[in-house]
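Morning. Coffee machine broken again, so started the prediction first thing and wrote up yesterday's gels while waiting. Chain of 150 residues, entered below exactly as on the submission form.
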Amino acid sequence: MTDICGPGRVADYLVVESRERGELLTNLKLQKLLYYAQAWFLALHDEPLFQEDFQAWVHGPVLPSQYQRFKHNQWRPIMDDVMPPTEIEPRIEAHLDEILDVFGSEPATALEIMTHRERPWLEARGGIAPDEPSNAVVRKETMQDFYRSL
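Came back before lunch.
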């Protein structure tokens, strides 16, 4: 199965568009926006934006490839030279804009708390302590079912 829009292109779009809206993203906030972009795309379109799985880390769902890509920023805003992705389907662009409209004004910590209260992350964590590391996969099927029910 191929990606509709690879995770790097989605991340690039979110970083660039957030800058244009006057906000610099941290890696933490980018992770949560990526998560909600994938979750709501699954719920609304019955297919994933990208195939890579999120993992249920301590601070919420994380997409390992994009976490590693921006890890050097630590807690600071992502200042990397990120170019706007080319050739994104209009429906993908509209979806990502809506994600930013809904979740973009929320602080990263608020988004983290939200994910911690939702079934996909909780189920993936399987009852381990909130501060215990985990690489457990947040299942796409659980994301799709949960967000579709909302």
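The chain has a mean pLDDT of 96. Going to sketch it on the whiteboard this afternoon.
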